[in-house]
Design a protein that fits this description.
With about 950 residues, the chain is of the alpha+beta class. Helix content is about 60%, strand content about 10%. The strands form five sheets. Strands 2, 3, 4, 5, 6 and 7 form a six-stranded antiparallel β-sheet that branches. Strands 9, 10, 11, 12 and 13 form a five-stranded antiparallel β-sheet that branches. It is elongated, with a radius of gyration of 40 Å. It starts with a helix and ends with a helix.
């Protein structure tokens, strides 16, 4: 029969594994770190948009003289040319979509022509007021023509030289000034088309990656190719140093450093963990069984994730591997226990309760991640919960059929016998030390902070940090001083209309002193509706002024040396017919001067303008703009975005703590059945958390978006350890079984696996990985210490006094009876008199046992009918089928003059009854197979409770 069940179970395992493999095959993977941010809606769009407009796909090559070399701009430009030439094969391969090594002067000249050709589309109302003043002034035309003569004698500067033919009267100068101001806001110098930083100390070339900043695999190939060209350039042009930076380069550097750190950490951890497991088990089969249980749990989780999600983050799976440290507890405890606890059935009987309680509470703790806003954290909660469920399913259903079956109990061999046998709880002074340290750490825990700066969890070498700083200074980027205003639409024309709608609001905010200045892209590129209004205004204006202006110009030009045809461009501008243009028409302007003002990265057309807060608080401006733009746009700033993420993360962090605590405490209460035991098991976790926060604060360690995830893992580990210690204490108290050393031995091995696995990352240079190791070391040390010391310390106080078992253990009802001065109303020497005493004897011995005791006493009125007034025919009574001994103990208490012999067939029932200390001297607990003393009355409990 057993063999048939085993075969069926194995076939079920094979079939289930095959189904899970099929489910996993449909799953896709991503590696977006921003999925860990608890943002949605506008916040998510703001992050995506900021990446795009701030050059998230740009790679910058920086050329500078090597240390000790004299500054030579000619050699720098030679290096730029050599570098650009070397990039041609990379450009042709598609790994780079664009290379900018020089400014395209033809394009810049084309911009000037483009602007004059479309001048009516770019004039403001204030410009018409100015033109009216110039044309109505009698001597203004003479003054401007004289000025034109002076301008001809001077060299042109900047992107826009004065175009006297197109604007001899300077009527359109404000438009050109606005475009020049936009160009000059980028603090870089142009020399013969080459781009230099201020002071010409560094030449710059720019490349555009076709991949997102997070696609480290593709960007890695790109960066390798660019670095190879940079090396060739440095060989071709000695004395020049070439370095690259930008978001893709930093992302690749991050990925490379993670791989390098992981390689070392995995090498160290795998070596040490294998040595630990071989030393602990010394049987290859046991190691394989633990491994198979973990693999099944992982497959189970991936399969059910595939049912609920179309894709999952690779980062989630990487971090989720820490779950192995918790999941390994289940097969580890089971396999270790089978080595000394007799048959598999006996092992299951002892292990099912702590395994299930630990699993349910830990799964509940991880399930608290599911309601969070961050998609990756939700997936992490699902992955962890399913993996633990899958592992416990394998351990309780399949593993019993795979372990070697034992028919008799063997002597236990503990790997860490001396450590496992230590009982620090015997030293009462430890309680005062723990209380004092808890108060100290509790005070420091109030200062534990959350680091929301994403740069702090990115790895950058000193060189990269310097290059990035130089690049940002050259580009004129200032995250902390700018507010970004975004107007959205399904089309570019709709987005531009939404942007124009808030123009009066921005003007009023500026007039009220709420900001210093702001860019306004719609003064140059506007919606077709606005273009038509501007064209109508143009036509109305020149209808009244064209003839007079041209007459005056022709009349006065010769006096200043100009011939009549010198201003044909101006005449053409005034006489041309204009019509509204589509957004694509403005590509010559957009690509050169407004590339950061338009984006489709969020899936919608976004028009972006920048507000310079000028040191003022940007929050009021943002609030007003977000209210006005509700549904059609939003406003954000880099600091405010970080602050919003910080607040959300802080809320999530607090939620995780409270939710985990509540779920774990609730399940502990339900599982143990007593408030005292749930508090006993929960207290180490609460104290441990205070210690963790306090130690982190004292050591100036901070939580961040990566290591905060460990909070749930550590909570789960502490939960499992405490439950096993508590269950061991209950078993020792109820059955006098020495399970606690075995449980402690398993905990030591489990904790060492987790400690080694994550703690080995302490060698990592990557700040995110290093922070994981720091939290792991502090957390694992704390939860093991708390589980090791606190439950035994408190439990021994509950059930013992001065080293002896209390006649009645301390419970909340017991304390309440003492507090109110309760006096037993029943007559001494009766069953009712010993009611509470008897319940006390079966308290803290298992929820089912205590419940059974209460039910028996309530159902049979404390057995008063059979015990009170019993007249023995002799001085001895034999109680057959006594079960757990409640009836026998009560009988012995009521009749101290009678020897009571209690018999039970189940060895556990015999051990339980015998452990009800202090036992009356007239009670003898025996196995049903023991030889009975001659004589005495016979009472069969089965007959009584029919």
């Amino acid at each position: 029969m057993l063999q048939r069940r085993r075969s069926l179970c194995m076939w079920l395992l094979v079939a289930l594994t095959a189904v899970l493999f099929v489910m996993v095959a449909s799953l896709k993977y991503n590696e977006n770190i921003y999925d860990f941010l608890p943002v949605s809606g506008n916040e998510q769009k703001a992050i995506t948009l900021y990446q795009d407009i701030s050059g998230g796909q740009r790679v910058f090559a920086m050329f500078r003289m090597k240390e000790g070399e004299t500054l030579d701009p000619d050699r720098l430009t030679e290096a730029v040319d050599s570098f650009a030439q070397g990039l041609q094969p990379v450009l042709e391969s598609g790994h780079i979509t664009e290379v900018t090594s020089q400014v395209d002067f033809e394009k810049v000249t084309g911009i000037t022509d483009f602007v004059y050709q479309n001048m009516p589309l770019m004039l403001r109302d204030s410009d018409y007021v100015r033109m009216e003043q110039i044309l109505s002034s009698p001597d203004s035309i003479d003054k401007q023509l004289a000025n034109d003569v002076q301008m001809i004698m001077m060299p042109a500067t900047g992107f826009f030289s004065s175009n006297i033919s197109n604007d001899p009267l300077g009527l359109f100068a404000p438009v050109i000034d606005r475009l020049q101001a936009r160009q000059s806001s980028m603090p870089m110098e142009i020399d013969n088309g080459y781009i230099f930083s201020s002071g010409r100390k560094m030449a710059i070339a720019m490349m555009t990656s076709p991949y997102g900043a997070m696609e480290s695999a593709n960007n890695s190939m790109l960066v390798n190719e660019v670095d190879s060209v940079a090396q060739q350039t440095m060989l071709a042009v000695p004395g020049v140093d070439v370095a690259t930076t930008g978001a893709p380069v930093i992302a690749v550097g991050n990925a490379s450093q993670i791989k390098e750190d992981s390689k070392w950490a995995i090498s160290i951890s795998v070596t040490l963990i294998l040595l630990l497991l071989v030393f602990s088990f010394r049987k290859v089969k046991n190691l394989l069984l633990i491994g198979v249980a973990i693999i099944f749990g992982w497959l189970f989780a991936m399969g059910f994730i595939a049912v609920m999600r179309s894709d999952v983050s690779l980062i989630v799976l990487g971090i989720g591997s820490i779950i192995i440290g918790i999941a390994v507890n289940y097969p580890l405890h089971f396999v270790l226990h089978t080595d000394h606890s007799g048959t598999v059935r006996e092992v299951l009987k002892e292990m099912v309760s702590p395994l299930l309680i630990g699993n349910i509470t830990t799964v509940g703790a991880f399930a608290s991640l599911i309601p969070l806003d961050a998609p990756a954290l939700r997936d992490l909660g699902l992955f962890a919960a399913f993996m633990l469920v899958g592992t416990i399913l394998f351990v309780l259903v399949f593993l019993p059929h795979l372990v070697k079956k034992r028919q008799a109990e063997e002597e236990e061999r503990l790997t860490f016998g001396k450590i496992s046998s230590m009982s620090p709880e015997r030293h009462r002074w430890l309680l005062w030390v723990i209380l004092a340290l808890t108060l100290i750490f509790g005070w420091y825990s109030l200062d534990t902070s959350f680091d929301t700066n994403m740069h702090h969890i990115n790895y950058m070498s000193d060189t990269q940090t310097e290059l990035l700083s130089s690049m940002r200074a050259t580009a004129g980027l200032n995250d902390t001083a700018n507010v970004y205003v975004v107007a959205e639409g399904e089309t570019w024309d709709e987005a531009l209309q939404h942007r124009q709608a808030i123009a009066p609001l921005l003007d009023s905010l500026k007039s009220a002193g709420k900001m210093h200045s702001y860019t306004d892209v719609t003064t140059i590129i506007c919606s077709q509706q606005e273009q038509q209004l501007r064209i109508d205004r143009w036509n109305d204006f020149w209808e009244n002024h064209r003839a007079e202006a041209m007459a005056q110009l022709r009349k006065k030009a010769p006096a200043h040396g100009f011939n009549v045809e010198a201003f044909s461009g101006f005449e053409s501008i005034l006489s041309d017919t204009y019509e509204p243009r589509s957004f694509d028409y403005f590509e010559p302007l957009r690509s050169v001067l407004f590339s950061g003002s338009f984006s489709e990265s969020t899936g919608r057309c976004s028009v972006v303008d920048v507000i310079d807060a000028g040191g003022l608080d940007p929050v009021p401006v943002e609030e007003v703009l977000n209210e006005r733009l509700d549904g059609v746009g939003y406003a954000f700033d880099f600091v405010g975005m970080n602050s919003a993420i910080a607040n959300s993360l802080s809320s999530d962090f607090n939620y995780i703590g409270f939710a985990c605590g509540f779920i774990v405490f609730l399940f502990l209460w339900i599982s143990f059945g007593r408030l005292e035991l749930s508090l006993l098991a929960f207290l180490p976790m609460a104290l441990g958390w205070i210690w963790i926060l306090g130690i982190m604060s004292m050591l100036d360690m901070q939580f961040n978006i990566v290591n905060v995830i460990l909070a749930t893992f550590i909570f789960g580990q502490g939960d499992d350890y405490t439950i096993f210690i508590t269950d061991g204490l209950l078993n020792e108290y109820a059955y006098r079984k020495k399970l606690l050393p075995s449980y402690k031995n398993s905990i030591v091995i489990s904790a060492l696996i987790m400690f080694i696995g994550m703690g080995s990352l302490i060698v990592a240079k990557h700040p995110a990985l290093h922070s994981l190791a720091e939290v792991t070391i502090v957390g694992m040390f704390t939860v093991v210490l708390m589980a090791w010391v606190v439950p035994p310390l408190i439990f021994n106080w509950l059930v013992r006094r001065h080293g002896e078992v209390r006649p009645e253990p301390i419970t909340i009802p017991f304390l309440l009876r003492k507090l109110i001065g309760y006096r037993n109303p029943h007559q001494p020497g009766t069953t009712h008199y010993f009611h509470h005493y008897l319940i006390g004897k079966y308290t803290y011995k298992g929820f089912g046992i205590e419940r059974e005791t209460r039910q028996l006493l309530n159902r049979y009125d404390d057995f008063s009918e059979w015990i009170d007034g019993y007249k023995a025919k002799s001085g001895r009574v034999h109680v057959l089928n006594a079960g757990r001994g409640q009836f026998s103990l009560l009988f012995a208490l009521v009749h101290p003059e009678i020897d009571v012999w209690s018999y039970a067939s189940d060895p556990d029932d015999v051990a339980l009854a015998a452990a009800c200390e202090p036992m009356p001297s007239n009670l003898h607990v025996c196995s049903a197979t023991a030889e009975k003393p001659a004589g005495g009355d016979i009472l069969d409990l089965q007959e009584i409770v029919k």
